[in-house]
Design goal:
The complex is a heterodimer of chains A (255) and B (272).
Chain A: H1 16-19, H2 22-38, H3 42-59, H4 62-90, H5 97-123, H6 126-135, H7 140-168, H8 179-185, H9 187-210, H10 229-251
Chain B: E1 2-10, E2 16-25, E3 30-35, H1 41-48, E4 56-61, E5 64-65, H2 71-77, E6 78-81, H3 94-104, H4 109-123, H5 138-150, E7 156-160, H6 168-183, E8 187-191, H7 195-201, E9 204-209, E10 212-218, H8 219-222, H9 226-230, H10 238-245, H11 258-271
Parallel strand pairs in B: 3-8, 3-9, 6-7, 7-8
Antiparallel strand pairs in B: 1-2, 1-4, 4-5, 9-10
Helix pairs in contact in B: 3-4, 3-5
Classes of the chains: A mainly alpha (255), B alpha/beta (272).
């Protein structure tokens, strides 16, 4: 029932992609996003999408990748449908090949985004993410709030399941009644979950203060981010790819 | 009668929590399920009202296969009190909290009122009747959770770690209370780490380790078996360990608690 929350659970693995500096991966995210936006033909979109697959293989995260794509499939088909509908209505109630191919490339663009973001989030630990955000100038408090939010998702999922179990044991039937009744059925689930979350965050704050959180002005990290030669090489490649694709788009009029 | 036949259970994540469990709990029995953390105790009791369905094998409650009945139908027979009351308390008042299950099971309103009155008296929560469940102390919340299940009078009462967070006085009350419920013919099943508590109740003891049942028998056989208990991270009650060292256990009268020890020592001094 709560399997969609699995997407947020980070699994520690080792691969060249996992070892890559998170800032380099963030640059990859940016480059791929820009390229997917400036190009729009079906062929281009297809090429960009296919280019992400070898990385999935290198990172050994196919299962999770497939799962996020499956999750995105519904929205992608909605995008295709709406684009076709708009093309159909504006094109004098006829469906041209152009409209169909444009609609599909828009759907594919969404899947490409999903794929690229999956690569980033599946191979970057919450700690790395926090460090990278810090290096980019985000205050530590915000980084910490962000990473702890991600970290507590699995706990929260477990807790929601326990609350559902406890209330079902008292005869609660979630699937019973009309739509309004069904929404009301969730009140006995949501209240304990909210209250537990508040208690948990207060406890966490107290435990952290007890361990000296915020005691020194300048905190240091156990792990520091260092760019290796390979990281620089990849940055260079990414920038070349970006420059090349923009030049081709503008001067060769590829699309 | 609850029958568990060749049950295996694997969580969606791939953790095998139960392995080939075979177990029959008769009506009117008083049973304690014990074992180390992660032994599968809570998973096992969630099978009893169908919250979890076996991956292999089957669970029958009064002959009904749990795969063929809804959780609500089974919960009417098998009442499970969860370990942490904060996972279930949600209502504005204690009365409402207790009425929740009764309304779910479709009790008429006059019956709801009558049952709330009697359970509040029974659990000593009467003076809090109109206050918020969240105002109660930890121990009181635990009693409220118990009351909210007891009130619909299930045939099988299943408790997950009922003694956690209870002071000795409350534990004593809980003990008398469970014994009384059991005497009235209800089946009581509790999951617990609390050996001293089990030593007072002297129920049937089922020991679990790594998803399997490693021992099943009377408390005076299992609780004093130090090697068996240690194999699942438990220890015999202190007084039993002490009695074992002095070789004080007698056939037919194993020392599990202070009263047992007292009886045997009196026998020894007066008789000898």
């Amino acid at each position: 029932m709560l399997s969609f929350l699995e997407v947020f659970r980070f699994r520690r693995r080792d691969s060249p992609l996992h070892r890559l500096d998170p800032r380099v991966k963030a640059l990859y995210l940016l480059v791929m996003s820009v390229i997917s936006i400036v190009y729009y033909s079906l062929a281009a979109m297809f090429t960009i999408f296919i280019s992400t697959i070898p990385l999935i293989a290198v990172a050994k995260v196919y299962k999770e990748w497939i799962r996020s794509l499956r999750g995105a499939l519904f929205l992608a088909s909605m995008i295709i449908f709406v684009n076709m509908l708009a093309g159909y209505l504006s094109g004098g109630f006829s469906l041209t090949m152009d409209v169909v191919s444009y609609a599909f490339s828009m759907g594919l663009r969404f899947l490409t985004f999903t794929s690229v973001f999956s690569i980033f989030f599946l191979t970057t630990t919450p700690e790395d993410l926090s460090l990278a955000l810090e290096k980019l100038g985000v205050p530590y408090d915000y980084c910490f709030a962000f990473t702890s939010a991600i970290r507590f998702v699995p706990d929260l999922a477990l807790e929601i399941q326990t609350v559902i179990d406890a209330q079902r044991s008292r005869g609660l039937e979630l699937e019973k009644g009309n739509i309004i009744r069904r929404i009301r059925n969730y009140i006995p689930i949501l209240i304990p979950v909210f209250i537990r979350s508040f208690t948990r965050s207060i406890e966490l704050a107290e435990a952290m203060e007890a361990r000296g959180y915020g005691a020194s002005e300048r905190r240091t990290s156990i792990y520091e981010l260092y760019m290796k030669h390979s990281d620089y090489a990849i940055v260079a490649i990414l920038l070349c790819v970006l420059a090349l694709s923009i030049l081709l788009r503008i001067y060769a009029n590829w699309y | 009668m609850i029958e568990v036949r060749n049950v295996y259970f694997t969580y969606p994540g791939g953790v095998e929590a139960l392995r080939n469990i075979n177990l029959t709990i008769d009506r009117g029995e008083f049973t304690a399920i014990m074992g180390e953390n992660g032994a599968g105790k809570t998973t096992l009791i969630k099978m009893f009202n169908g919250l979890l369905k076996p991956s292999r094998g089957c669970v029958l409650v009064d002959g009904i296969d749990t795969r063929e009945a809804s959780v609500a139908e089974l919960s009417r027979k098998v009442g499970i009190v969860f370990q942490n009351p904060e996972h279930q308390l949600f209502a504005e008042t204690i009365e409402e909290e207790i009425a929740f299950a009764l309304r779910n099971f479709g009790f008429p309103e006059d019956e709801v009122a009558r049952r709330i009155d009697s359970i509040l008296k029974f659990t000593g929560l009467e003076r809090y009747r109109g206050s918020s469940p969240f105002m109660l102390s930890g121990g009181e919340k635990k009693r409220l959770a118990l009351a909210s299940i007891l009130v619909f009078d299930p045939d099988y009462l299943v408790l997950d770690e009922p003694t956690i967070g209870q002071d000795p006085e409350q534990k004593d009350k809980l003990l008398q209370f469970l014994v009384e419920v059991n005497r009235r013919g209800k089946t009581v099943i509790m999951v617990t780490h609390d050996v001293e508590f089990v030593a007072e109740c002297k129920p049937r003891v089922i020991l679990m380790r790594k998803g399997e049942i490693i021992a099943d028998g009377s408390a005076d056989k299992i609780l004093v078996d130090e090697n068996l208990m240690k194999s699942t991270s438990l220890l015999p009650p202190q007084i039993s360990a002490f009695a074992s060292k002095l070789n004080l256990h007698r056939p037919g009268c194993t020392i599990l608690n202070v009263d047992d020890a007292f009886r045997i020592l009196v026998d020894l001094y007066i008789g000898g």
